[in-house]
Amino acid sequence: MLKTDFYEQPTNELAKALLGKELVRWVDKVELVGRVVEVEAYHQDGDEAAHSFNGKTQRNGVMFLSPGHLYVYLSYGMHCCMNVVAEPEGIGAAVLIRALEPLKGLEYMAAVRSKAKHPRDYANGPGKACQAFAISRRDNGLKLETKSLFLRDAPLKRTDIILQSPRIGISKAIHLPWRYYLAGNPHVSASKWNASGSVIA
DNA sequence: ACTGCGATGTCCT
DNA sequence: GGACATCGCAGTT
User: Fold this and answer.
1) What is the pTM of this model?
2) Could you say which nucleotides of strand C lie within 7 A of any protein CB atom?
3) A99 pairs with which residues across the strands?
4) Tell me: the pLDDT tens digits for A100-133?
5) Rg, Å, chain A Cα set
6) CA-to-C1' distance for A90 and C7, Å?
7) Phi-psi region for residue A194, left (φ > 0), alpha (ψ -120 to 50) or beta?
8) What is the number of structural domains in chain A?
9) CATH code at A123?
10) Which domain holds residue A26?
11) Residue A144 in contact with residue A151, Cβ under 8 Å?
12) CA atoms of A182 and A197, how far apart (whole Å)
């Protein structure tokens, strides 16, 4: 289980480090496991797209807790998005988990993501990932060191290449290339954007 | 495969 | 009252 020292690093570093890690979720005595394949970094300082840009509010308070907390918010009135708090306590930065590659618990996900025709559609988007892994606003503020919800270390595959691109679905600060994802992975969201990224070291 | 658009709750001005 | 870190459906190529 990854601990606070892993999460307490600069937001972009944490974003990249999260790729390939495994999210473990227990729900109804079923184990769900997903590999992180797409993330976006949201900073506090100078990032107009971040919820924390204008400081701490009732909604974004969790972003200012210590690193490794889970920030869950409601998007467009009907979908949840999950973020991992980065940086030291009090900064207000987080990494959005945009897509997961389902590894375990596929039957459960097929049930809760009944609209999905193919496993690739279970968690290839921030709202879908929350649905598939049964993450809701009840989980807002949890620390990712809970028996039923945590991240586990896992190595990138030898062939994995990290790409970066502008973030998706926002209207502010669209020039900042703070989306990171695994090249060619079929579980990444919005596949039409996948070719637009550039390779990073 | 790609495009446009409606649903819908909460936050903040 | 406007904006929103989305999704899924309908219609078109």
Assistant:
1) 0.94
2) 3-9
3) A38
4) 999 999 999 999 999 998 999 999 999 999 999 9
5) 15
6) 33
7) alpha
8) 1
9) 3.10.300.10
10) 4-158
11) yes
12) 10
